[in-house]
Amino acid sequence: MTTETLTLAKAVNAALADSLEGDDRVLLMGEDIGKLGGVFRVTDGLQARFGEERVMDAPLAESAIIGTAIGMGYRGFRVVAEIQFDGFIYPAFDQIVAQVAKLHFRSKGRVKVPLTIRVPFGGAIGSVEHHSESPEAYFAHTAGLRVVTASTPQEAYSTLRAAIASDDPVLFFEPKGKYYTKGEVDRSIVRDLDTANVVAAGRDVTVAAYGPTVETALRAAIAAADEGIEIEVIDLRSISPLDVDTVVESVRRTGRLVVAHEAPGEVSVSSELITSVVERAFSSLEAAPERVTGYDTPYPPSAIEHDYLPSLDRILDAVDRTLGRRSSRDELDTSLATTGAAR
Hints:
Blueprint: E1 4-7, H1 8-22, E2 26-30, H2 46-50, E3 55-57, H3 62-74, E4 78-82, H4 93-100, H5 103-106, E5 116-121, H6 136-140, E6 146-149, H7 153-165, E7 170-175, E8 182-185, E9 197-200, E10 205-209, H8 213-225, E11 231-235, E12 238-240, H9 244-254, E13 257-264, H10 269-281, E14 290-294, H11 305-308, H12 312-322, H13 328-339
Parallel strand pairs: 2-3, 2-4, 4-5, 5-7, 6-7, 10-11, 10-13, 13-14
Antiparallel strand pairs: 1-8, 6-12, 9-11
Helix pairs in contact: 1-7, 3-4, 8-12, 9-10
C-alpha cells in the first residue's frame, strides 16, 4: 500500500485529477475553478494540466451550471459541477430537485444523469452570511439523489472517485472547515457510496456523525475514555441513503445513541436517524436518544459561530444524559434557578 500525506482539499484535487486522467468523458465546471483554481484552490492546476475544454470556468449562475451539466450528461459526459459555497446552491435548487433527480425515473431508466455536484459546506471558517450553510437535508429528502460527505482526506478521495464513477446523480458535501486537515491517502481505495463506517469502537454509547462533526465526536470519545466511558463513533458518510443497519447494530450493543451534525435539528438527518433507530431497536435502548446540532436559527455572525456549532462539551453533555449522569448544562440550569435567573 502506497500512501501520501494530503490535506482534504488536496485529496479532492487528486480525486478530480485521477478521474480526469482515467476517463475522457469527465469534465469539470464551476465558477473560478480554472485559472484561479477555485476560491479554496481545490482545483488548482487542473485547467493547466487538462485544458480549458475539460476544466471550464462558468458564469456566476448556478442554475446555468447545473442546467448545462444536465445537457452534457444527456450527451454521455460525466460532469463534476462545483457550487462555490453552500449558500449559493439555492438558485440551482429547481434544476437539482425537479430535473436531475427525476430524469432517470421519468424516462423509465433510459436516461442516466451521471452528475456529481461538489458543495463546500458547513462553518468554522469565520465567513459572512450565505457562506456557512448546511443544506444537506433539503436534498436528502429528494428521491433520486445520492447525498454523501467526507470527514478525512482519505474519505474525500475515495468518496469523490466513487461519486464520479456512479451513474446516479450525487451531491458531495465537502466540509470546508476541514479543507486543510491532513491525513494519509491511499489512491487505490475507492469505496462504495452507501455504507457508514465505525471509526472508533466502544460499548457504552453510540455517537453517529458526519462530515466536520466526526472529528469532534472522536475527540469526545478520547475525553470520555479518561472517565472510563467507551464511545462508539460512527461516520455516517452517506446521508442519503442512510446506512441505518450499521447504527442499529451498534445501538443494540451500546443501548444508547447520540447524533451530531452542524445543520439545524428540526426535520434533519438526526431526526430521521433517531426515528429509524427507535423503530428498529426500541427494545435495546436504555435511554432516550439525544441529538447535538446547530440551532434552529439562521447561521449566526462569525464572531459567535462557535457557540452555534456542535462542540466537544455539548456532545459530552449529551453522552452524560444518555448515561443518566448530571451534565454541565444541567448544573448550569440548576445554578440559574437557584439565583432566580432561570425562566
